[in-house]
Amino acid sequence: MKIIFLGTSAAVPTATRGLASIAIRRGGEVLIFDAGEGMQRNFLLAKLGINQKMKLFITHMHADHCVGILGLLQTMTLLGRNKKLDIYGEPRLHEFISQNIRVIKFGLSFNLDIHIIDKEGVIVKESDYQVSCCRSEHSVPSYSFSLQEFDRPGIFNVAKATKLGVPKGNLFHKLQHGEDIIHNGMIIKSVEVVGPKRRGRKIGISGDTRPSVELERFFANSDVLIFEATYTQDKYQNAVNTFHSTAIEAASLAKASKSDKLFLTHFSSRYKDPSILLDEARTVYENVELAEDLKTVIIPYTR
Amino acid sequence: MKIIFLGTSAAVPTATRGLASIAIRRGGEVLIFDAGEGMQRNFLLAKLGINQKMKLFITHMHADHCVGILGLLQTMTLLGRNKKLDIYGEPRLHEFISQNIRVIKFGLSFNLDIHIIDKEGVIVKESDYQVSCCRSEHSVPSYSFSLQEFDRPGIFNVAKATKLGVPKGNLFHKLQHGEDIIHNGMIIKSVEVVGPKRRGRKIGISGDTRPSVELERFFANSDVLIFEATYTQDKYQNAVNTFHSTAIEAASLAKASKSDKLFLTHFSSRYKDPSILLDEARTVYENVELAEDLKTVIIPYTR
């Protein structure tokens, strides 16, 4: 699994940072969180694939998080996508897309399934992962998302099982899934031939929000938390007034949620050098980095 | 007067070229032609000024020419514009802006006057210039634009007029505006004290179009013609099918219209190096250059 930041500026783009968008590539699929204006450019540069299996999640319907949907859909059409695209967001997402397709009159070369989010909980459940949403605290209806992989059985030691005389088939399956067996009058324990369970990874994405106890719970034990850090602490009142977070608040929430690693993103364009946000965050939480446009992060199994 | 190219790619942005947008700065005002997705980024980098007197013209309502309006309006609001903004385009422009303002719910910090273009002719007349439109040949209703400065009187040689004994006031005014006068029994000719008339400059902007005789007339005697050159000549049939022009067609039209200088823009993203378009254009017309994002061109008085 890898994370590729496609846009890391808040509200207004800068010379080096486009508007909000994050891609996660895992298991042959691309999951995109937010599509700020112009994100298709980094999407193309990152070579994420026009015709990949793909889902797009929109945290909220502010222009700097959703306007890029239009260009992305059009470019996918121009470049010949034919696989269905699933897109998730609050009710106005449907109106935004359908009105613009009608007014700008652009056809799509693929089916677009718009899934309206109207409550918290699991919104996508695939065989090996799920995506959940939690209301965030912003000036318009907005959601944070988490991607949670399901735990997988440990690695099965085929050679050892074969050496113990276990035949392939049903008994292999039982051992792999944690059952002890009796074979040729001998007890063979699952733990003898199966490594420790591989814990699924969890990635949290805040969208725009004030910090909250709900989000602290929602992001509990994330392998990676990507949290907005619009402001330095001296602009705390701006953060409160505009329903955003400071870098220190993001770091405090990462710590409180026992997340392993924090990426700060969504920086106010007033910070020519956002390393001041990193410095502030480090005063409360060590394992933190700044997101950069097109920065790619490989997420290993760590627990 | 200077021209600043804000986006020069057709349909899909590339690493170095954003979507269609051209700015002209003259006399304390900024005129912008088209606003493809993401153009606000180069608009900000070019430091054109958030609160300038400004007019925005949209050639047609394809996403790659109009989606950038939304981000531009929002950024202007965030950065505190308070001067009225005039925007010109075909009827769907009004629907595009009003629907998106309603759905994405973004307020504006300034008045927006949307002027609907429904016929050819002069659409803006200021004291020193006018902007006209002409239907272009594209797959949707679309317009080309021309900016025409009015001729100005020649430079008045105050010292010489004074030396000839002409008093300031009415007689100055008459001489300045081409009238000969009799003063102290002496005939003084306007041409003795006034330089040659300064011809206004004319800039033509094609938008997306097939070449046509109408456009050749419309762009007649331009100082600068900015014409789309989506394709090389071997893709002539693509140009016909998609209502675009080849570089050679753009050059031929520049030549036929007796334009002084041609800039090619709106290059298909298939051309990693669009200099092939320049080479082709040069086979029929010498004074031609490629537009580049953020390239700035000063337009002198040349005639």
Topology readout:
The structure is a homodimer of 303-residue chains.
Chain A (H helix, E strand, L loop, with lengths): L1 E6 L1 E2 L10 E6 L2 E5 L5 H7 L7 E5 L5 H4 L1 H11 L6 E5 L2 H12 L8 E5 L4 E5 L3 E7 L7 E7 L8 H6 L6 H7 L4 E3 L2 E3 L1 H4 L8 E4 L7 H6 L5 E5 L7 H6 L5 H10 L5 E4 L1 E2 L6 H8 L5 E3 L5 E3 L5
Parallel strand pairs in A: 2-16, 4-5, 5-6, 6-7, 13-14, 14-15, 15-17
Antiparallel strand pairs in A: 1-3, 1-18, 3-4, 8-9, 9-10, 10-13, 11-12
Helix pairs in contact in A: 10-11
User: How many distinct domains of chain A?
Assistant: 2
| Physical arrangement of strands within the biggest beta sheet of chain A | 7-6-5-4-3-1-18
- Chains forming the largest contact: A-B, 36 and 36 residues
Strand content of chain A: 25-35%
CATH class of the largest domain in chain A: Alpha Beta
- Please name the CATH architecture of the largest domain in chain A: 4-Layer Sandwich
Question: What gyration radius of chain A follows from the Cα positions, in whole Å?
Answer: 22 Å
The name of the CATH topology of the largest domain in chain A is: Metallo-beta-lactamase, Chain A
Oligomer: homodimer
Shape of chain A: globular
- Report helical residue fraction of chain A: 25-40%
Continuous helix count of chain A: 11
Question: Which blocks of ≥5 consecutive residues of chain A have pLDDT under 50?
Answer: none
Structural class of the helices, strands and pairings of chain A? alpha/beta
Query: How many distinct beta strands of chain A?
Result: 18
